[in-house]
Amino acid sequence: MIGFGYDVHRFKEGRPLILGGVEIPHTHGLDGHSDADVLCHAIADAVLGSLGLPDIGHYFPPGDPQCLNICSLKILEKAAALCREQGYKLVNIDSTLVAEAPKVLPHREAMKENIGRALRLDPARVGIKATTNETMGFVGRREGIAAMAVAQVEPTGL
Ligand SMILES: Nc1ccn([C@@H]2O[C@H](COP(=O)(O)O)[C@@H](O)[C@H]2O)c(=O)n1
Ligand SMILES: C[C@@]1(CO)OP(=O)(O)OP(=O)(O)OC[C@H]1O
């Protein structure tokens, strides 16, 4: 079974930029109630979607004081735990970050390690790609970063 996830967060000055659990040096971070890790959020929704479960807002309600600045790797840990509880295991993840800046690919290996650890998945099975939006739209105007992800799961018995 497969699932798809999409998320977007707006840039905000004075916040750290966290992507895939890695703090990436940049002029702006992303705004959010959590750590605003747009990549982890998209991947979590892809995992939850593959199982037909509700999205991350159901498990981590927006505005919930317990979610304030939460490390989004914890959200991935929860999604992976739900997957195991349902009798499924993750096969692989693929994802794309859409950001005009900064360059994120230099941090790819560190992000893969973090995400693999949180999901209990071999980092070699965590795909992370990046593209600019060629200066078009809100991403092109450097207003924020978007992320898309797919997840594949299969029954544990296979
Ligand atoms: N935020 C980004 C965007 C892109 N990259 C890398 O640059 C390559 C070229 O991107 P274009 O949008 O100009 O085609 C892309 O394939 C990525 O390898 C990046 O690291 N960070
Ligand atoms: C995880 C949550 C918790 O507030 O994080 P946010 O930073 O609000 O991010 P968003 O992707 O807008 O919604 C998901 C929320 O459930």
TrEMBL record:
Keyword set includes Hydrolase: no
Binding site for 4-CDP-2-C-methyl-D-erythritol 2-phosphate: 7-9, 33-34, 55-57, 131-134, 138, 141
Cofactor annotation remark: Binds 1 divalent metal cation per subunit.
PROSITE patterns, per the entry: ISPF
Described purpose of this protein according to its UniProt entry: Involved in the biosynthesis of isopentenyl diphosphate (IPP) and dimethylallyl diphosphate (DMAPP), two major building blocks of isoprenoid compounds. Catalyzes the conversion of 4-diphosphocytidyl-2-C-methyl-D-erythritol 2-phosphate (CDP-ME2P) to 2-C-methyl-D-erythritol 2,4-cyclodiphosphate (ME-CPP) with a corresponding release of cytidine 5-monophosphate (CMP).
Family annotation (NCBIfam families): ispF
Protein name per Swiss-Prot or TrEMBL: 2-C-methyl-D-erythritol 2,4-cyclodiphosphate synthase
Organism: Luteolibacter luteus
